[in-house]
Amino acid sequence: MEEPILTLENVNKKIGKHHIIKDLSFDVYPGEVFGFLGPNGAGKTTTIRMIVGLTNVTSGEIKINGSSISKDYKKAIENVGAIVENPELYPYLSARKNLIHFGRMSKNVTEEDIQQRLELVGLDHVKDKKVKRFSLGMKQRLGIAQAMIHNPKILILDEPTNGLDPAGIRQMRDYLRGVAKKENIAILVSSHVLSEMELMCDRFAIIKEGKLVQVEDVSNESNEEVVSSYRMEVNEVEKAKVFIEEQLDTTVEIQDGMLKVQVSKEGIGKMVSSLTRNDIIIYQVIREKQTLEDRFLQATSQEVS
Amino acid sequence: MLLKLIQNEWMKLFNRISTYIMLGILVLGVSVTAIVIFFNQTESSELPSEEEWKSELQQSNVNLEANLDDMVGGFDNYYLRSFYENELAINNYRIEHNLSPHEETNVWSYIDINTALVSLIGVFVIIVGASIVAHEFNKGTIKLLLVRSVSRTQILASKFITTILFGLFLLAILFSLSFIVGSILFGFDGSSIHLSAIDGEVKERSRILFLGLSYLSSSVTLLMLTAFSFMISTIFRSETIAIALSVMFLFIGTNATSILALFTDWAKYSLFANTDLQVYFADGPMIEGMTLGFSIAVLVIYFVIFLYLAFIFFKKRDVSI
After folding, report:
1. Deepest in the core among A133, A232, A246, B76, taking most CB within 10 A?
2. A9: which strand partners?
3. Count of CB atoms situated within 10 Å of the CB of A91
4. B319 — contact with chain A (CB < 8 Å)?
5. Is B139 an 8 Å CB contact of chain A?
6. What pLDDT does residue A182 have?
7. Which residues is A212 bridged to in the sheet?
8. Is residue B263 pLDDT above 70, yes or no?
9. Angstroms from B162 CA to nearest CA on chain A
10. CATH of domain A6-217
11. What is the pLDDT of residues A161-175, one digit of tens each?
12. What's the CATH architecture for A228-288?
């Protein structure tokens, strides 16, 4: 396995008496889009602020590319490009001047880099327009250009699709996924819009009340051994139920005139072929996919001790 | 790196409309004084004759001496006494050397009048100093600014230096504009000597040097007030509080201190008793026993405290907007 680009180890944050973040630990690897989910007020933004050094860590360690953000700030932050909440750019400067401004703050950013980034986010034609005339989508894109101007190894985006229309969201998603794979950079995205995260992320962490609830892959059903539940529409429901229970030794429920079974991927294949061999017609087999939303609600509603 | 940051701040400053409004007001101020002075200028024919101004000065000397006599045994105050003594000395010097206090309006007297506009620059620099930090917080751009491999100290330093440079830039504009306008409208006829007295001893100085000194020493006040408004805006993140407090001090600071000086010597530790370094080259300090070294030390201490507080707060605080 590759070295993680971002590591959080038992990170805690207290403000006054409030314990906002409790023992948070996770890793983010190069080339992946990592989703950071949680209900409002769970501590997503606080965590992101700590990662980029806007807020001090009470205890624990955050390392970016091996350098601690609290002890070796400059070296750690060199690898980071970030948008925290809204992309707040200077409204009275043009898009190009905004990028020149942030480019000057890092080493080795040339005019060509700026031009290239403008083209990549599709703002080349409006580069001399003042940002206050930009739409929200354009600002978001300029925000990303700004975050990537110094070729960071990790991109940290807090709610990047906030306020975008569906076309804008899709564009953003394609762009981010493309960037992660092409330039092999890690992207940490926080959001509470789950359907979007499902399409964008490779892995995700869920936090609730400052605690990590779980870290998972988005598509964990590819594994052959994992048992999922399947629904099946057949011509003779009762006959099929008896057949499966007797011959295949699997419990079957009947729900809305459909058979419901809990088997592995391999199991469902066998079941289908033996049913067809016994003259039972199968119209459709549906795997009941647990959506990210189900998992999110499941994770955030159960009490974690 | 610091140079690039200053470049950035300068770029932001000159892409904002308010900066051009300030420049416009300054140019307007110079043109207003030019027009007013032009239509009220003293011609050589209007100047009082030698006898007239000499008797005028002698009359004022009689009054000054009477004031000084009153002080003996009565209410004795260093500030007032040195003021009377120095006036007296200058008047005598004028009578002896035949130097009339009256003159035709000329480029020097015009530049001298325009020192009043330095307070205007003071206000502008305070506004810039107060907004250069608070603005980043209001707009939220501070987050993008801090999430870079530049230390917070460097960012704040670049902002302070930019504010000071902006002040010097305005002073240079005022001085050169006054010189150009003055020399075109009023010409160079007039005394090129400036008289001042310390401890009753009169000194002659080149006038342009004196004017240069008075512009520079007025920038000391500017520097201190910039540091002050900078500190307030960094700590409270509010442009309004910073501007209000600093402008108030700019206009009443010196007067309040001279009133205070009538009652107590402690006034010499006040910031405003020390901002006007020109007194050491001209009319002597407000309070007995103050020296140039003392004033510089007091100023440095205030300056360090202001900036230290600004930097400490800026460095330590969590950014939560």
Report:
1. A232
2. A61
3. 14
4. yes
5. yes
6. 87
7. A207
8. yes
9. 15
10. 3.40.50.300
11. 777 788 888 888 888
12. 2-Layer Sandwich (3.30)
Q: Determine the Cα–Cα distance for residues A150 and B248; give it in Å rounded to an integer.
A: 44
Note the pLDDT of residue B209: 79
Domain boundaries, chain B: 2-42+106-316, 48-102
Q: Does B203 touch chain A (CB under 8 A)?
A: no
Nearest to A88 among B15, B139, B320 (CB): B139
The secondary structure of residue A292, as a DSSP letter, is: H
Closest CA to B83 of B202, B199, B201, B194: B199
Could you identify the residue written with the tokens 């330093």? Answer: B157
CA dihedral A69, A75, A79, A85 (to 10 degrees): 40
- Closest by CA to B24, choosing from B179, B170, B222, B225, is B170
Say yes or no: B140 contacts chain A, CB-CB below 8 A.
yes
Residue pair A55/A9 in contact (Cβ under 8 Å)? The answer is no
Under 8 Å CB-to-CB from B140, ≥6 apart: which residues? Answer: A85, A86, A88, B321
Which residues in chain A are classed under CATH 3.40.50.300?
A: 6-217
Interface test mutation site (partner A, options B143, B158, B159, max chain A beta carbons within 10 A) = B143
**What is the model's pLDDT at position A304?**
44
Contact A92 B15 (CB under 8 A): yes
Q: A163 CA to chain B: closest CA distance, Å?
A: 17
Q: Where exactly does CATH 3.30.70 map onto chain A?
A: 228-288
Could you tell me which residues come within 8 angstroms of residue B4 by beta carbon, excluding any fewer than 6 positions away? A104, A105
Mean pLDDT by 10 residues, chain A (305 residues): 85 88 90 87 87 89 90 89 85 93 89 89 90 88 89 88 80 86 90 80 86 73 66 85 81 83 83 86 82 72 53
Dihedral of the alpha carbons of A52, B15, A98, A69, in degrees to the nearest 10 = -20
Q: How far apart, in whole angstroms, are the C-alpha atoms of residue B108 and residue B188?
A: 8
Instruction: Give chain B's count of helices (H) and strands (E).
Output: 12, 2
Sheet strands (E) in A29-108: 33-37, 59-64, 67-68, 80-83
CA distance A26 to A63: 11
Nearest neighbour of B147 by CB, restricted to A56, A77, A101: A77
Match 């610091």 to its residue by tokens: B2
Q: Where are the alpha helices (DSSP H) in chain A?
A: 44-51, 73-77, 95-104, 111-120, 136-148, 166-183, 194-200, 237-243, 265-277, 292-301
Burial code (b: 16+ CB inside 10 Å, e: under 16) for A110-141 equals eeebbeebbebbebeebbeebbeebeebbbbb
